[in-house]
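lol forgot to send this yesterday, sorry. struct tokens for the thing we talked abt
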């Protein structure tokens, strides 16, 4: 194996992973070709050779030096054939794809349909890759959101108000559950659990009668919008309620030590795997150990434990 391509999505820790991939490959005399703007760049033949020196000083930076973009055209056979042409023209012996469910699904298609050797690296703040304890970027996203919530609590307590904070999580409540527990929040709304807003408002009213002066409610964007929840709470309880949407700040920021170490381990493992002839696999972390998981399993829906976290949040309220 002489040349490997790499394409990425964006979240904290991606650059540290790129660095690990390039420098591990360099130790084996393998050249890494970066694909600019993900699958969009793969279809348009946007490439750059990455060297030991070109990845210096990026271990602590957020985002991705390779950029990324949505690529709906890759879902078509025409787009896939354009991607295949780029792979052949650049004499790539395989691809390492760093990203979430969509990116890994694309990698699986390239392998299964066209015979391209691929290894996936799980990287998504939602942590919704099946069979993976922790995807790259998740720990940083939780800590970024938690820092904001700690600051909101100062205001909520001072003004004696209810705050509804919307975090990312279209189909998965991972971030919402973690920050609600770590932030000492009173309620969490996630896609995996039915929303009982009347019951929540009853708890707020009863708590206020006992002298509780502030509440913080976390909602995952895919389940309920902060503005709608806040309006409903005010309507039912007549208490002043404010909403805050954290948005894309959760996808940026300097990666935590955990994500930097995970990036190093994932990147190194990905190169070792593809060098040894593995393909159609995803690097996975389970109980602290690394192993290879079939991509067809990694892209399946992930069952997340919700009830135990939710019960603990309510007990500690």
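and heres what i got for the seq, position by position
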């Amino acid at each position: 194996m002489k040349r490997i391509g790499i394409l990425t999505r964006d979240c904290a820790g991606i650059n540290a992973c790129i660095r690990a991939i390039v420098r591990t490959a360099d130790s084996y005399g393998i050249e890494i070709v970066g694909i600019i703007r993900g699958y969009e760049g793969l279809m348009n033949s946007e490439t750059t050779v990455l060297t030991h020196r070109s990845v210096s000083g990026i271990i602590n930076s957020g985002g991705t030096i390779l950029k990324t973009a949505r690529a709906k055209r890759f879902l078509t056979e025409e787009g896939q054939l354009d991607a295949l042409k780029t792979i052949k023209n650049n004499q790539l012996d395989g691809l390492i794809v760093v990203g979430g469910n969509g990116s890994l699904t694309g990698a699986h298609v390239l392998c299964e349909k066209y015979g391209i050797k691929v290894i996936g690296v799980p990287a998504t703040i939602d942590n919704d890759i099946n069979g993976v304890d922790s995807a790259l970027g998740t720990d940083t996203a939780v800590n970024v959101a938690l820092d904001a919530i700690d600051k909101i609590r100062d205001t909520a307590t001072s003004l004696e108000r209810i705050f509804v904070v919307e975090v990312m999580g279209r189909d998965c409540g991972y971030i919402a559950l973690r920050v609600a527990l770590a932030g000492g929040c009173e309620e969490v709304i996630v896609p995996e659990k039915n929303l009982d807003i009347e019951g929540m408002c009853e708890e707020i009213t009863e708590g206020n009668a006992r002298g509780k002066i502030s509440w913080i409610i976390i909602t995952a964007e895919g389940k309920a919008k902060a503005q709608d929840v806040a309006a409903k709470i005010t309507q039912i309880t007549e208490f002043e309620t404010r909403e805050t949407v954290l948005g894309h700040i959760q996808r940026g920021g300097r990666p935590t030590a955990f994500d930097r170490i995970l990036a190093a381990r994932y990147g190194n493992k990905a190169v070792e795997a593809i060098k040894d002839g593995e393909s159609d696999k995803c690097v996975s972390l389970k109980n602290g150990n690394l192993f290879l998981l079939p991509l067809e399993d990694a892209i399946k829906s992930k069952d997340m434990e919700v009830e135990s976290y939710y019960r603990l949040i309510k007990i500690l309220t």
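The two ends are 56 Å apart (CA to CA). anyway ping me if u want another try
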